[in-house]
Write a structure and sequence with these properties.
CATH architecture of one domain: Orthogonal Bundle
Number of helices: 19
CATH superfamily of one domain: MetI-like
Number of strands: 5
CATH class of one domain: Mainly Alpha
Largest sheet: 3 strands, antiparallel
Helix content: 55-70%
CATH topology of one domain: MetI-like fold
Oligomer: single chain
Order of helices and strands: EHHHEEHHEEHHHHHHHHHHHHHH
């Protein structure tokens, strides 16, 4: 086995390391710890963070790539490797190998459209049975009872996981608070805790139910149906999560240095520096984003086609286009945050402590790095988290019009683009679009709710800190 590091994998790992370093800094900073504590003390913040963490775990599993060695033939001494795959691909291999001929509805045991085939030696035109869906049933009449049985089995697994998780959490809470497990359970059920453990338990239980049902029903059926080529829609939806996360995070990584750097410099120095920077981002904002992105992506595609030896596998070519899309999308999306940072810097430079630093001869670079930029980070953090979901939706729109990710890359935009023709078919193929809609809704809604929680906690004008303190004092619970 040979570990393969794609371009986007490198940045994904770098982001994980940066998050760990930031978490360490938060632990050492009382002010940051208090702000992030407020984020997770809100029920909506706790629930959305757990859902985002669930999607991030899937994306990380899909970011560990490797190539397996092919069986040696004859006297060949050099090792040949197969196509690049991820850990998530290994987990989903049973579903990938159960490919059908064409469309099939969720949990179906027969094809979606009639075909001509032989039955008992006679040519008929009917709905042919699926190779995998219901193939384990000796009698197809037992379909409904088998689905009910697998559903109950999945619910039983979820209940067992929820009970085990709840027992462990109660044991930890009882030991931390020096109280009995019954008292901790009573307070958690009534919502009388400083942390929203009741909301966390409900969210974890809902995720456990969803995962256990998918695992149980996937052992014999296509839970979300199949597409035109007979591939599982569930596999495509799960593989699209990494693409959405990469688009949202890496594009934000491109936006932040441009927006913060140019905005701070323009607001602090003013004069001709401010005018030049304003003209620059006004010019960029005046160019239609879709046209600029389309031209850049097409130029990259021509370069890839003319230099096929630069990439060993098709996945590396698709990854290069995904990386370039993040860069060009970030270059066309920094203007809003840049204006916001510039306006805030114009106010900060008139503060007394900034003027005092200038009077004492502190250098401009030190003032920018130590006094102005740190006081802007709450605005930058709020805007960055709110833009995360915007970039995910932008990828779906760009892929829909054909200038997004590579067609071989799994993404929600590709699924939606494919479903465009399926909605016009008769009968309507509805499950591909619905699957992409549900997964995107869960991811984008969680990101937006988490952004709202961060805004309320980090905004200096928010009254959440005072209200939580009053509630905690009224309940007699320490925050």
């Amino acid at each position: 086995m040979k570990i393969t590091l794609l371009t986007t994998d490198f940045f994904v790992y770098a982001l994980v390391i940066a998050q760990i370093a930031y978490a360490w800094q938060v632990r050492r900073s009382p002010e940051l710890s208090a702000n992030w504590r407020l984020v997770f003390q809100r029920p909506v913040g706790m629930a959305s963070a757990l859902v985002i963490g669930f999607f991030l775990s899937i994306g990380l599993l899909d970011s560990i790539h490797f190539r397996q060695a092919l069986p040696s033939a004859g006297e060949r001494t050099t090792v040949q490797y197969g196509e690049t795959q991820s850990v998530l691909d290994l987990a989903l291999r049973p579903l990938v190998q159960t490919r059908e001929r064409s469309y099939s509805e969720p949990l179906a045991i027969q094809a979606f459209r009639k075909e001509s085939f032989e039955r008992d030696g006679q040519p008929v035109r009917d709905f042919p049975p699926l190779r995998f869906g219901g193939g384990h049933l000796p009698d197809r009449a037992d379909h409904s009872s088998d689905v009910v049985g697998k559903t109950l089995r999945g619910l039983a697994w979820a209940l067992g996981f929820a009970l085990a998780f709840g027992a462990l959490a109660l044991a930890v809470a009882a030991r931390a608070t020096s109280t009995s497990a019954g008292q901790c359970l009573h307070r958690a059920l009534r919502g009388q805790t400083s942390w929203p453990w009741r909301t966390a338990a409900v969210t974890v239980s809902a995720l456990a139910v969803m995962v256990c049902l998918l695992v149980s029903l996937s052992n014999g059926y296509h839970v979300l149906g199949t597409d035109r080529t007979g591939n599982s829609v569930l596999v495509m939806a799960l593989k699209s999560i990494r693409t959405a996360l990469v688009i949202g995070s890496l594009t934000t990584l491109v936006v932040l240095p441009l927006a913060v750097g140019l905005g701070v410099v323009a607001g602090y120095f003013r004069g001709w520096v401010d005018e030049v920077i304003q003209y620059f981002y006004t010019l960029v904002a005046s160019i239609p984003d879709v046209l600029l992105i389309a031209a850049a992506v097409l130029l990259l595609q021509v370069f890839i086609d003319n230099n096929p030896t630069l990439f060993e596998t098709a996945l590396e070519r698709s990854d290069a286009r995904l990386m370039f899309l993040c860069v060009i999308l970030g270059l066309t999306s920094f203007t809003g945050l840049c204006r916001l940072v510039r306006g805030e810097t114009l106010k900060l430079r008139e503060m007394e402590y900034i003027q005092g630093a200038q009077a004492f001869g502190v250098t401009h670079a030190r003032i920018l790095m130590r006094h102005i930029t740190p006081n802007l980070m709450h605005i930058v953090l709020i805007h960055a988290v709110m833009q995360f979901s915007t970039f995910i939706l932008a990828e779906a729109v760009l892929s829909y019009v054909g200038v997004g990710v590579d067609p071989n890359t799994a993404s929600f935009g590709i699924i939606i683009n494919t479903a465009r023709a399926e909605l016009a078919a008769s009968p309507v193929v509805w499950w591909t679009l619905l699957s992409a809609f549900v997964f995107m809704l869960m991811l984008v809604l969680s990101a937006n709710l988490f952004a709202d929680a961060i805004r309320d906690a980090f905004d200096p004008r928010a009254r959440l800190r005072a209200s939580l303190s009053r509630v905690s004092r009224r309940m007699g619970v320490s925050t």
